[in-house]
Design a protein that fits this description.
single chain; binds 2-O-methyl-1,6-di-O-phosphono-D-mannitol; alpha/beta; 13 helices; 15% strand; 47% helix; eight-stranded parallel beta barrel; TIM Barrel; two-stranded antiparallel sheet
Amino acid sequence: MNLADLNKIARAMVAPGKGILAADESSGTIKKRFDVIGVESTENNRRDYREMMFRSQEAMSQYISGVILYDETIWQNAADGTPLVKLIEQAGSIPGIKVDEGTQKLPGCPGETITVGLDKLAERLDKYYKQGARFAKWRAVIDIDSANGVPTHTAIMTNAHALARYAALCQQAQIVPIVEPEVLMDGSHDIDTCYQVTEWVLKETFQQLYFQRVALEGMILKPNMAVAGKKSAKKADVQEVAEKTVKLLKSCVPSAVPGIAFLSGGQSDEEATAHLDAMNKIGGLPWGLTFSYGRALQAAPQKAWSGKVDNVAAGQAAFTHRAKMNSLASKGEWSASLESKKAA
Ligand code: 5MM
């Protein structure tokens, strides 16, 4: 492992004003997204959609440091035969790859899951590296259902263990691991419950990363923010989310970690941007704090594109606008008034 090179990539992933595009929807997830816009989820449509984003020159060269790809995408060529990985590289962005293989039921823990994909991961990482991937992602999913004793320590501990195993294998393959322990915002819990569960998850994750000898300088953390559940009667405002999330991360994430890139988790586009901006306005943070959004970057371009060739320019404008708003938020320079000034 060359830690200096891993650290260089990790820092580039959270370079000032830049963040990550999570375009690693598995086949099932992208089908759900395409269903919303009435587009059939064929291999060519998935390629055309992603090619549209990767050819958004302003967004990819100025605001998007890296793209998380799904296995199908990393091997695909654009319509003109150029490998999609090359399009990303030509724009000055870094290709990455989702390497987890989804979740399975966790035995003995009703309603909870364990993320799988460690078997043969070392071999897969070597192939992805040769194909151009310089970072990877693994997502653990932790639900909150306090009435039913969820999450359990079993789910948190086994998922943290798997995250650390994955991260160690990535570093051995000279690939920067994005460590993503996602505490879902699906429940009716309040922000303080989310805070406590996320704190538990992060403490356990960093303990496992230490036990498994992962070099913190060569990784990126992709956490959820501290937010109230979607069904909570008690919403938290932007400032409360920002202050509690910053406090939470400062107490759990060592300063050796180069950067933290949030998932959006079902927040609206503008909420995800406003929260990131408010945190960066607080300032004085020991790590880069940016975005690694899936839905909050792609909902608008998906709608604008809607599977039509004639809409490619509109889709790219919508993608560029969201990428720019989040770029500004990653520097604490966003304001709601900028939302109306759409990219040309
Ligand atoms: C883009 O979606 C990613 C893949 O999800 P599936 O494996 O379920 O298809 C997902 O891991 C994503 O990278 C993160 O959840 C962040 O995306 P959001 O939409 O939460 O910002």
